[in-house]
Specification:
Shape: globular
CATH superfamily: MFS general substrate transporter like domains
Distance between the termini: 42 Å
Helix content: over 70%
CATH architecture: Up-down Bundle
Largest sheet: none
Number of helices: 18
Number of strands: 0
Strand content: under 5%
Order of helices and strands: HHHHHHHHHHHHHHHHHH
CATH class: Mainly Alpha
């Protein structure tokens, strides 16, 4: 009788433990859904502006006064255009102008991401996510009233500084997923990016068509107000959604002890050399430090070459195929659709421990993808290259992020992933400048072959990357 009672007690205890685990798992997947919705809202707002940039810059150019910030930046862009040999046409001047603003945006992310990550280790993820989301909403509000180019640039600066919400979302996924499920969680972020870049540019293209119609009317008008208000509405919805639905994913007992220690680790990371060494991550093993450094270098090199070639896609499709903004929007729709299918059907099913081999496959596919695009003189060949490119785009970043999230103490995950995200932002700020220089100096074939072959370097260095499994 006594033995039977003990067995019943053990069964009840096991049942309670299983129930708790199931409840925790349901809660964690609920957080992933919240992160997904939040990122989709954020990225839809963010990508709306992309097809509008040429029209926006033309608008400010026609309203700019002499000796204004617009003319200062235009002079710098013209100097760069002459240096690299780009043609003096309104279209490419606008593209290079937009590329410079994009590089500034990424550079600001590079500066802010590790700081935001470090502060989230001290005060929690939700507070910092709310703060950055409010900053992003404020940047759209400023854009809506930016009747001068200076205000527009200020809005972009505020948005770039606040864009640390992406690295925070990655950290939240790391908080709530077990190591064996982390790739699935990172795939959720990848799908959110694909959805945002799938639909956002199409919405922006619609606003771009409205802008052209408005420009033909007497008096023109500030056409950018409608898309700015649209982005602002999405951003406000996102702020409310986070405030109401997002739980705190870093338990209070795991918060870092002081803000001073967090900043003392993060502020010096403005120095790129310290960033690559992951200096801000303290009290960790030598093997952990080496692992973070190895994956950080691979991630930086990958995004450096990838972002540069991604940026020049608009050059080559316009030069060879006379693509307008709508055709380029359809091209990015094709890319985004494939990425969603790959991330939803393949990446989230990657078995734990297979992340590094999957990154290797992605890089192996991406190298011929860029070479195919280099020699593409027909739509079918171009889209073959874009299909390969889309597959690689869908798998490399989520898997590398999973590897990076396996390193570092629990109370410094925000710092680790903030640094990781910052390395990517630095690569994205430099890559387009490098690729544009090669493109206009040596031609598209050389640019894409050099970029594709250069990806052998991160592929080679990937051999030194190990996934931490303990």
């Amino acid at each position: 009788m006594e033995t039977k009672t003990k067995n019943n007690g053990l069964e009840a205890k096991n049942k309670n433990n299983n129930t708790k685990e199931e409840d925790t798992e349901r809660t964690n997947w609920r957080v992933l859904v919240i992160v997904f919705i939040s990122l989709v809202l954020d990225l839809l707002a963010f990508t709306v502006i992309l097809p509008l940039l040429p029209s926006i810059l033309d608008f400010y150019g026609s309203h700019a006064e002499e000796n204004s910030l617009y003319h200062t930046v235009k002079t710098a862009v013209s100097g760069f255009r002459v240096l690299v040999g780009a043609p003096d046409t309104p279209r490419w001047n606008s593209v290079l102008f937009g590329g410079m603003l994009g590089s500034l945006f990424s550079f600001l992310q590079y500066l802010s991401s590790p700081l935001i990550g470090a502060v989230s280790d001290v005060y929690g993820r939700k507070r910092m996510l709310l703060l950055t989301s409010v900053g992003i909403a404020s940047s759209y509000a400023l854009w809506a009233v930016s009747h001068s180019f200076s205000l527009f640039v200020l809005a972009r600066i505020l948005g770039g500084i606040s864009k640390g919400n992406i690295s925070l979302s990655t950290t939240i996924v790391s908080d709530v997923t077990r190591p064996q499920d982390r790739t699935k969680g990172m795939a959720v972020i990848g799908i959110a990016f694909s959805v945002g870049f799938l639909l956002g540019p199409l919405i922006g293209a619609y606003f771009s068509l409205q802008a052209r119609e408005l420009a033909l009317q007497p008096g023109g008008g500030a056409f950018y107000v409608a898309p700015a208000l649209f982005a602002l509405s999405l951003a406000i919805i996102n702020v409310v959604f986070i405030a109401v639905c997002m739980p705190e994913t870093l338990p209070r007992h795991k918060w870092a002890k002081s803000l001073g220690s967090g900043f003392s680790r993060a502020v010096p990371l403005i120095n790129p050399a310290m960033l690559f060494r992951f200096t801000a991550v303290q009290h960790t093993s030598v093997s952990d430090v080496c692992g973070m450094q190895n994956v950080g270098v691979v991630y930086f090199l990958y995004l450096f070459f990838y972002s540069g070639l991604e940026f020049t896609l608009t050059f080559i499709t316009h030069n060879r195929f006379n693509y307008d903004s709508m055709q380029q929007g359809k091209m990015f729709f094709f890319i985004g659709l494939i990425m969603i299918l790959v991330q939803g059907g393949f990446v989230r099913r990657i078995k734990p421990g297979k992340e590094i081999s999957t990154v290797s496959k992605g890089l192996v596919v991406l190298i011929p993808a860029f070479i195919v695009v280099a020699f593409a003189h027909s739509q079918s060949v171009l889209y073959l290259g874009l299909g390969l490119y889309s597959f690689a785009s869908a798998v490399v970043v989520p898997c590398l992020t999973t590897v990076a999230s396996s390193y570092g103490p629990v109370d410094q995950k925000g710092t680790v992933l903030g640094i990781f995200r910052s390395l990517g932002a630095l690569a994205r700020s430099l890559g387009p400048i490098f690729a544009s220089t090669v493109y206009w100096s040596m031609g598209p074939v050389v640019c894409y072959i050099v970029g594709g072959v250069s990806l052998l370097l991160p592929l080679y260095l990937l051999r030194r990357v190990k996934l931490r499994t303990d």
